[in-house]
Amino acid sequence: MKEKTATTGLKLNVRRTALIGFAFFGICLLWQVYDSWCPTFLTDIFARRMYGLSSAGLKASDPAKILNVQWIVGIIMACDNLAALILLPLFGNFSDRTHSLIGKRMPYILVGTFVAAVAFPFIPLFFHKNSIGAMVVMMAIVLMFMMMYRNPAVALMPDITPKPLRAKANGIINIMGYLGGAFATVLGIFLKLSDYINASDEARKVWTIEIPFIVASLLMVISAMVLFFTVKENKLADELKDEMDEGERLAAVEAPIDDDKPMSAANKRMLLAILGAEFLWFMSENAIATYIGNYVIYYLQSSSGKTMILTIIGGLASVIGFATAGSIADKVGRKWTVSFGLSITVIAYIIMCFARPTGVVTGANGEFSFPTLLFVVWAIKGFGMALVHNCSFPMVVELCSSKKIGKFTGYYYTASMSAQTITPVALGLVFKASGRWGVLPIYAGILIVLSCTLFTALVKNIKANKVANAKGLEALDGD
To answer: Which domains does the chain have, with CATH numbers?
Structure first.
């Protein structure tokens, strides 16, 4: 298809997009706390029970014992993703068909937020009380209601953003999400999980692990309230109808979208290729996210606070990536922006293979100093995957009309959640079979290579018309 070069009259309203981003702020805030704390909770409680270890003796025990329970940790961490395979598309379809006084997405966002926020602080409480069953039940409740929240919250941006503007809008949305994750990260630096894990049973203080969960719940509720009072779905849908129609006309697709006809073969091939590549890169990313906390505590034998510093470095690099991805995509297209992001992520994992425990003892708990090489890895990886995430979701919802955004958002999350269902168990079994923590970057790197190969080979680079952003006072106009 011939590249379009005309500049359209569509303009991105930065203020409104940032307000919509409060939905993603709450999502990333909860996931950051969940992924940083829960795998270690599960490792600690299962290893101590299976091998009759005290909390103080767990870290000093045979590392093989820690590796041997990772497959159990992986199964539990994967169960919520298995439920998501059903619930995310379901709530996406439900919200597409919902008509209420507060909009079609907002009812799901509000109910999901409040129930998840109430249940979330009970996870560390039941862990502290050594109650596996109650802790896992609370994890299930939180995840179920976050599934109710997540799809509609993510679909809200493309609902009221014309197609050619969605890559830049997605950058703003993701920056808001990383700000949410930053709150959790700062808490993790000052309330170190490793201090709790390495303490004796008598010395463990529940507030060390409870405060991050309470703060996350409060901020999640506040973010939902900001969203509810500032973004009026029904009003915006009426006001932006003409802009959305123009966006449909300018979409970067091979064949025009028509809800009354089956999806064209060209668009279907594009969709399947994007989702297939997405499946592989989420397998890689979730492997790192699930096990990095245990990797730092049990393999590098370093402070969990360093994991939080990694997250901050990765987050800052990601913000740079999200801020620049839209402009890069305008110049070279979304396909090559994603391919470049995947390529430099491969480089990051190659570098990670050379990170080893330092053997240099620091701190009262006998923890090793942290290998500075990992800070470089997380900066490169954060920037690279920001380019990937910024452009991939808009490419999926580009292939549907405004009537099916929730459904296609469900496709996007079906691919990601199915990957996140498989990878914790698969990598847990790899750990068990190999007996080596060093397989983590190898596993993640191979998946990124496969993803990049599939995406680059099968996805076409189709550019939309160049568009402008609202700037200055114009961007701050009311809705």
So the answer is: 11-467 (1.20.1250.20)
